Prior knowledge:
By secondary structure, the protein is an alpha/beta fold. It has helices at 2-6, 18-31, 46-58, 60-73, 114-127, 142-150, 170-176, and strands at 77-78, 92-96, 100-107, 131-136, 153-154, 162-163, 165-169. The strands form two sheets. A five-stranded mixed beta sheet has the order 1-2-3-4-7, sandwiched between helices. The protein is globular, with a radius of gyration of 19 Å.
Amino acid sequence: MHAAEKLGRNWIGIDVTHLAIGLIEKRLRDAFPKVDFTTHGVPQDIAGARDLAQRGREDKNYYFEFEKWALSLIAAQPGNLGKKGADRGIDGNVYFGKTQRAIVSVKAGDNVGVGMIRDLRGVIERERAEIGIFLTLTEPKKTMIAEAAAAGQFEMEGFEPVPRIQIVTAEEALALRDRAVRLPARRDDAFKRAAREEDTRAQGSLDL
């Protein structure tokens, strides 16, 4: 798809997992900032996200797809590399700085509560991670926001402090993608950034 777009060809791409689709979406947007395409079969809005989550409640395989889709929005790497099994509270990882790490917890249910924020804080302390990201389909309660704020700030020299526990809704992630997460010196280990391609089809400057 990258090669076809670069050559100005029409293209259609097909893949089976949200993780792979998220990767190529990011690659195309990095390489071609003005690219225009439509992705079918993955949530495009919050209603689609809720539909995928509902299917996940009925079929566990769909739940893993919801999780991978949500992680792809913020360019996070699956915590268990996309495999089924116990994740020890680590649904995803985002790396920044030289060795710093943010742990992502994805929640698709309606029964989110303050205990989940405490659990995430416990996970980042156990794993000695710097930041925790709570990625939720449901709007967080005020008690959850207060609990996250109580975790304080993470500071890195040369950068503005950022919240140690960050709550990001799926709606925010849909709108902002990886910009929904505040990380200093973010790296692109999870999804290698494609080099920006020069638009050879654009009209050049005219001498008058």
